[in-house]
Amino acid sequence: MGHRISRRTLFRTVSGLAAAGALGPALTACAGGTGAGSAGGDLTMTWWGSDERHAAYKKALAVFRKSNPTIRIETRYSGYDGYFDKFNTQVAGGSAPDLLQMDTALVAQYARKGILAPLDSYVGKSLDLTGFSTTLLAAGTVDGKLYGVPSGIGVNQLTVNRSGLEKLGLKLPDREWTWNDLKNIAVDVHKKSGGRIHGVDDGGGSALQCFEIFAREKGQPFFSADGTKLGFTADTLTEWWEFWAGMRKDQASPPPAITSAAHNDLTKNAVVIGKALFTFDSGVYGAGGAITDVQLDFLPTPQGGFAGAREGNFVNGGVLLSATKASKRVADSVKIMDFFAQDTTAIKDMQLQRGIPPTQKARSLISAGLSETDKRNMATADYISRRVAKATDALPAPVPPPQGADRIRDLLFQSNLAVAFGRKTIKAQASEFFDQAQNILAG
Amino acid sequence: MTSAKSDEAEGEEPAAPAAPADRRERARPRRRAVGRRGGGWWPYVFLAPWFVGLFGLTVYPMLDSLYLSFTDFDLLTPARWIGARNYTHMFSDDPVFWDSVHATLLYVVVSVPLKLALALGVAILLNRPLKGIGVYRAAFYLPSLLGGAVAMAIVWRQVFGGDGLFNDLLGWFGIKGQDWISSPDTSIYTLILLAVWQFGTPMVIFLAGLKQLPKDVYEAAAIDGAGTVTRFFRITLPLLTPIVFFNLVLQIIDGFKTFTPAYVVSNGTGGPLNSTMLYSLYLYKKGFTDLQMGYASALAWVLFLVIAGFTAVNFVAGRYWVHYDD
User: Fold this and answer.
1) Pick from A54, A152, A184, B140: most CB atoms within 10 A?
2) Residue A115 belongs to what domain range?
């Protein structure tokens, strides 16, 4: 034996090559040029969403193709997870889509990097935005220019398993409810279910859906107006985490393992797995699980209950449709945007798949065909947007989030988790959060 | 494959005019043909496709990533030179970097020895003339074919989740389980288990080594009255050290660059609390999610140096415990 394996030189070569082979991908994955744009051929369009949204888009696009036989469209779609990772890679590799669904939270970042095409020169010509309010268009506007057409009105709502509440002999809270009301009913859920069900999923690390609103109720925006600093104070964050620490202690909210599992995964959401009845996550319905056959209802994020509380809600633009700057087909992309904004069949096909439709005309077009759940969803959204419009003490709508905003939101989530797992005290974690967030914002 | 080719590349360099007579005696027919044409560049023409691959797909991208590691490249806009800032940031104020180093070291240090021990143990069990032994060998190798796949990681997530099979199993014994994936204390061990379970490749290599061990040594030892345990520690293990060494080096390298299971099991987050943030996953997140490709390139080079360092240490340490025949 031995002859083969004792040849050290060969062996060295083999392991050396293995090492190089091992590292090759890691090192070379990072190479790439800039520049983008697809030449002729099909117009590529991408979006993220649920199966229902995919079906709705495809149905509407089939209609578009009939009236525009010269524009061939290639569609690519997926869930949200990894959607922007892929987009980034495509932009870097020069194969960015011509038209894409864009997140209102990321539009500023991409617009300022020069990835998206400004649309202002098309508005009023091939892009008809009649009926879109200025506040709504603000969601797609960065530094005074329009980079995306909002799909609809987006507001933050809690999704409630109403059947579950009724089974426990509890009533749906009033829309004008406070944080304290949330706590009370969540504790009741836990007690009346014999400890089987917690009340509401842990919102302590949830930036967009609830902490941002809580901070605004205190008159503090999430980011300062110039986007270079956090807009809220350490006291606000501490008070917030203390509220949720209390919720977890009372078992009104689930333990951190459940919260952690639900991160980026709606199918593990506490309401979907039947461990809670209220959730701040939007879009859980359609996720199946414990809410497959139940009646769902919707509520605004709780408001105030403390002195000096202000209106904290705000209205944003749902999702956007944006064109990439390097694309040679911007004019065609704009035609598709216009189609989704104004065409009767497109509006009917999309229903609430991309939020509450943006114009009065569109809302009245779809209202007849909606399911009961969708109707309740739209009614609550309507209620919230009217309340925001009426409020005199609300802060202006949030500024376009600065670069790194998504990392700060993730940091908030991880920080709350660290507190919940007992790794850090609230005080220590809050100061660490501010350090790291400032670090991220400073670039 | 590549190793063989590169050897040839080196070997054929002197195919040029120098000492043709001597070469012709030893050369194979193919080489003689080359020599007869007298064209020293012909070998390079045939090697060109491979060189294009080497320089276009390996050397150039690697050097480019070295350059990018000193820039703030964000994938979307042109890179700006920022000196060593990526490297200083990494070591001075990036807590997640240290979380990922911790998770990766834990993963490598625990999973590699366990995996090798299991591989060797099973290889010894399978190294006997049983009926249908081939079927057993195939069965034990199977996880290695499946284990690297995304599907397997998804299964793992279900098995060790809060309502997963593993907890059901514990339930039979009256033990109340927990969500193993979502708890920061246990999540990394689910990944380690997944790694150990894929012991097939080192097992096959061990098996090949065991088959070549000289029988006379064992016979002599048996006559001298050495028991099974003594024979294992005094004969099998020492004779097998080159194989152990080979597997150790490969598994450590493999461990450091593990990505897929961490990505899938943690749903791309590296959570909970960065406990499954293996280095390659962090590198990926920085580059493709946070758009810090310059920083990700720096991370890649640090990984490269760390793996090179571990491998070098392995080779030096190997002098003291690896026994070669010659």
Assistant:
1) A152
2) 43-152+318-369
